[in-house]
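User: Run a structure prediction on this.
Assistant: Running it now.
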Amino acid sequence: MTRKDQLTVPQHELVEAWQRTLPKRLNEGDSAEVWADQADPKSLRVTIHVAGRQMYELDFSVRYLDSREIDVELVDVESGGRSIDERADAVQELIADYRRHLHECAQSLHDLTHAWEKEGGSAMTKPKSQAVPQPGQGHAGRNDAHDKDGTVHEPLSGSKKVKNRNHSRQNQGEGS
């Protein structure tokens, strides 16, 4: 992994960004708590409070693998304040749905997490673009069909022009 692929956003900024963004990604009536994982500066802890009679709470650990990709791990599922078995089909569907919401949130924060980075960790602008030479302008390592003095060169033996020319010469008398 190169330096620029590593997450350099301070954890407290990630937490604030997730706190602003995640509620917009959840279902209506749901709420979420986001806080820093004290054991890992690249991780966040998320509790999602699911709207409805079951009073589900899903606890996740969200860890940034690099500046673009996250790993979402289920920590616990509670209903009515008590841990429950998460293997039930209905609970598995909820878990899959909220994992998707977490990935959507991370993706919407790419501008923050995947900024062009300097050694100091602050964002910088895109690199300057370079002009592409026009045909006939010449370029180091490029074989133009004409030299500057107007001399025309034959195409190289492996070129498409030569292959097409040779192919058309061989197929003139089909069946003869």
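Residues 116-127 have pLDDT under 50 and may be disordered.
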